[in-house]
Amino acid sequence: MSLSELRYQIRESLIESRYFGMSVSDILSYLEGFGNNTWIFFDTETTGLPQDVHTGQITEIAAVAVNPKNWNEEAEVLGQFNEKIALNPETLATMERQQANPESRPENSRVWTIEKALEKTRYHEWERDFKDEQDVIKEFIEFVQSFPGPVLVAQNASFDMKWIFTRAETEMTRYPVIDTMRIMQLFLIPLLRTLRDPPHEDIEAAELLSKLKRGRRYSSSMGVVAGAYGISTENWHSALADVQMLMDLLEHVVQTLRSGIDVDIRPEHSSSAAYQSRQKKRGF
To answer: Is 3-281 CATH 3.20.20.70?
Structure first.
């Protein structure tokens, strides 16, 4: 592991730990503290999982810059970025090997073939030029830098930041990062679980929570949570559509958190934080 990667992982751990121990009021105050910043909602599509970052590549980056107006009214869109990336020789060679040995990637494998990843992210549904990976990363960095006080916002932000940070040959300025998945895991779901149970017995919270149930746990997947709120997920896993979905979703999440700003979620929050810490150690 390089020194730059080590510094990145330490920084990401500090960002994530910042959410631990917060109340609903605390997280809302934290978000409102960026009221004068430009929020850059962004998403990447890639050829693999986090461990593939050195052997894979980014295939698409999309972003929308907004003034969220503290989610008191409709956010003001300030700019948009969306580019797809041409497959490099290494990726094409890997695809050829996977196609020649299909049994090496069974259907139930957590590791998809690159072709499946491209199909899922609608890679080939593109009527513009595909660009070089480094050119797109550079253009994305320039897009972010063109706005005053950028704060980066993404679902499972550590995934996207790791790919951009590792793949970029250009040094990227450090900006505040908001991870919407952590907000859902550590605040939204704990709040709904608290409101569902006595003494609150909130019917609306119980109904929303039931829509998030997946097996024994509750999902913080963007598509699942968006669907629970009635937000369209038709183009889920297309980068720009994901960014636009996330903007709409975060507005709903903030309003839900505001409705429970004085609710004590400490038991559920602590349980969720402990579970996420165990998952992180196990590599999930």
So the answer is: no
